[in-house]
Design brief:
single chain; Aldehyde Dehydrogenase, Chain A, domain 1; Aldehyde Dehydrogenase, Chain A, domain 2; six-stranded mixed sheet; 15 helices; globular
Length: 464
């Protein structure tokens, strides 16, 4: 069999200096066939492995992650520029995820009784098979494991197609999983071009597909999965509203907004991208927010003092700058930043745009980088209307001391998650996912375990 493309390899480029640090040859059709054969064979064994044993191996994975934490964090930092302290946090979060699912996952797969009169009907959860996962670069380990671990607990196997610029992280994770003792075929990595992804989706050995990425990628992958009649989960972009009402504790709101917008250099799907502030406090909030943003340290991501590292890809920095300049040309006010940093690295100055309206670029589009947009709302109802005036619906935040009002607004917010007096965060104890163009399907909690299961009805002794 031949290769899928004339391109020969994926390249990992250190965004802090623009230097290539890894070359990873693309696999051929024969290579892909071998991986899918292993995944299918692994599934035949893994699905029959007792869930307690599967959980034990996931617990062992937590230990293996911690044993390799320094190497994993450094690889994340070198490949996509995440500040080292944040990279360590990502790796530790993965270990905690494994521990939580090892303890809680088996119970999520217990048979459920139904309301059938004789009590002899129940719902059983059966794994579907090998899952193809197309993953992004912004959380090279967490993004993978938050989908993989629940699926593995359920008895599925996992085939990871990672972003080309973080293949070093993909292969290192594969090594760590092998160290933990998971059997061959349970977790596999492929390195293929889009043609190879299409081939994998069509292959009968792949049972379902999950993707985290852009809307454009989601539309392409979703269409291919639909054509193959395979279930898919899509976690796509977001332009999350961060609502601050007049009675909010401004110091707490500012602190959360800065973290929610600038963590991971702003390269987060569920992030505080549109800061919608009620007009009574917008001036005070803006002053505090700009000053807090000004204090953020941008620099070498390997330094412990750095909070803002380089953006992961040079093309995305160019796109971000175009969006900022377009918003300024449309009438927004630049309060901070608004430009590429000088030098070899892929840095973008932390930016604050004020006087943004609902017709401007930074309101209508997702800005995937260290840029905050401040929008003034007349009142709480107007803030709700502005929040929902988006093609995205991933997560949202409300800061107010009136919890009854917050509950009323929550009922009408068109987002997959609402966080009241706290910034958005993914956590295995609660579900994660979006609506509208932010995608469909859910990760984490018991939804993540059951998302790729056959909810099978078992009705004993049905008569009549």
């Amino acid at each position: 069999m031949t290769a899928f493309s004339s391109h020969t390899h994926a390249v990992s480029i250190n965004p802090a200096n623009g230097e290539a640090i890894g070359h990873y040859p693309y696999q051929s059709e024969a290579d892909l066939d071998a991986v899918l054969t292993r995944a299918a064979g692994g599934f035949a064994h893994w699905r029959r492995t007792a869930v307690s044993e599967r959980a034990g191996l996931i617990l062992a994975l937590a230990s293996a992650i911690r044993d390799n934490a320094a190497a994993m964090a450094r690889m994340i930092t070198l490949e996509m520029g995440k500040p080292l302290a944040q990279a360590r946090g990502e790796v530790e979060k993965c270990a905690q995820l494994c521990e939580w699912y090892a303890a809680q996952g088996p119970g999520m797969l217990s048979a459920e009784s139904t309301l059938v009169e004789n009590g002899k009907a129940r719902i059983e959860y059966r794994p579907l098979g090998p899952i193809l996962a197309v993953m992004p670069w912004n959380f090279p380990v967490w993004q993978v494991l938050r989908g993989a671990v629940p699926a593995l607990i359920a008895g599925n196997t996992y085939v990871l197609k990672h972003a080309p610029n973080v293949m070093g992280s993909a292969y290192l994770l594969l090594d760590v999983i092998k160290q933990a003792g998971l059997p061959e075929g349970v977790f596999e990595v492929i390195n293929v071009t889009p043609d190879g992804v299409s081939q994998a989706i069509k292959d009968p050995r792949i049972a379902a597909v999950t993707l985290t990425g852009s809307v454009r990628a989601g539309m392409a992958i979703g269409a291919q999965a639909g054509a193959a009649l395979k279930k898919c989960v899509l976690e796509l972009g977001g332009s999350d509203p961060f609502i601050v009402l007049n009675d909010a504790n401004l110091d707490e709101a500012v602190k959360a907004a800065v973290i929610g917008r600038y963590a991971n250099t702003g390269q987060v799907c569920a992030a505080a991208k549109r800061l919608i502030v009620e007009q009574g406090v917008v001036d005070a909030f803006t002053e505090k927010f700009v000053e807090a943003t000004r204090q953020l340290v941008m620099g070498d991501p390997l330094s412990e003092q750095t909070y803002l590292g380089p953006m992961a890809r040079f093309d995305l920095r160019d796109e971000l700058d175009e969006q900022v300049q377009a918003t300024l040309a449309e009438g927004a006010t630049l309060l901070l930043g608004g430009h590429k940093a000088e030098g070899a690295g892929n840095y973008y100055a932390p930016t604050v745009l004020a006087d943004v309206t609902d017709q401007m670029t930074s309101f209508r589009q997702e800005l995937f980088g260290p840029v905050a947009s401040i929008i003034t709302a007349r009142d709480a109802r107007h803030a709700l209307e502005l929040a929902n005036d988006s093609e995205f619906g991933l997560a949202s935040t409300i800061y107010t001391q009136d919890l009854e009002l917050a509950a009323q607004l929550t009922e009408e917010l068109d987002t997959g998650g609402v966080f009241i007096n706290g910034y958005c965060a993914s956590d295995p104890r609660v579900t994660f996912g979006g609506v509208k163009k932010s995608g469909f399907g859910r990760e984490l909690s018991h939804f993540g375990v059951r998302e790729f299961c056959n909810a099978q009805t078992v009705w004993l002794d049905r008569r009549g």
